[in-house]
Amino acid sequence: MSESTNMHVPSRPDWNCKAPGCGEPWPCSTEKAALLETFKHARLTLRMYLASQMQEAINDAVRFPMGVDIEFWPRFLGWVPPSMRPSASSPEKPSEHGPAGRRTDAARERPSRSSAA
Ligand SMILES: [Zn+2]
How many Å separate Cα 55 from the centre of its chain? Predict the structure, then answer.
């Protein structure tokens, strides 16, 4: 983890990136990349961190209404990709088709997909 002073932090209460020349809605693309790198083995921790940030942003939005309709969930949490499981270490993964994978299976077994015999 590069410990260079991260300037891509949110300014409050508007929650735009503070870094000079950035100013994107936080988390900005630079911060997202940094977060993914920092939490690449702890995606759940990343989500918890972002959820807490989102809660702060919601608190600010309530306290300092700016007439901006922020879509909190997509902005703070929706961009996080699904957990990356270390796939190289285990060739056979018995738990791959857990509850999370069932949706894909159901979609794949649609009758319309099967060619008429
Ligand atoms: Zn930034």
Answer: 15
The sign of the CA dihedral 77, 24, 17, 7 is positive
Residue 35 CA to ligand 1 centre (angstroms): 12
Ligand 1 center from residue 67 Cα (angstroms) = 23
Q: What is the pLDDT along the chain (117 residues), one digit of tens a residue?
A: 444 578 999 999 999 999 999 999 999 999 999 999 999 999 999 999 999 999 999 999 999 987 778 899 999 999 998 875 655 544 555 555 555 545 555 555 555 555 555
Task: Give the start-to-end residue ranges of the domains of the chain.
Answer: 10-84
Ligand 1 (single-atom ion) residues, CB below 5 Å: 8, 17, 19, 22, 28, 30
Ligand 1 centroid–CA 85 distance in Å is: 28
